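Exercise 7.
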Amino acid sequence: MALQAPKGTRDILPEESYRWQHVEALIRGICYKYGLSEARTPVFEHTELFLRDLEHCGELLYLLDNAGEIVFDKILIRELNKHTRVTAVVKGAPIINDACMEDAEQTGLTAICEVIDNGGPFIGTPVSLINPYLVKRMESADIIVGKGQGNYETVDDFNGNVYLLLKIKCEIVSRHSGAPLGSAAFISTRKRVCDCEG
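Solution. The predicted structure, written as tokens, is:
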């Protein structure tokens, strides 16, 4: 009987594992500094499709989520900037613990990419409520990356090339996405369901 990896996963081989180890070491150092412990959950993703799309991407919109994650978002955005022009989107006013312009300025994100706000204190990016300028930017973007469950719930059906990066926290989102409860997922809305087995 041949062993087969679950759909939506891939092995990290020796020729690229050093990159992962470097990033993990950076993250571990930051977490240790702030007293955070490591937790690993299964990751199901559409990375190969994203990388193909990134080769032809002129503009990527990155919809930020939690203010506490913006330091890690900055690392990813810095890497994405090597391949395309990235614009980060923050909330126009405080809501829950989501990132606002002040957070982007304090972390230096504004120094590495354009940062715009969504026009208000909205959970996720509800297209009927956000700034019309942002809607136009979303319509013209080659790729949109939405972080968190709020963006999953508000841009999942947006007519664009949308990728959603989130932890699956509830049964409804688990059933809708096809990703197991508790897993981390990187989902292409063009494929509509995650390549994974629950």
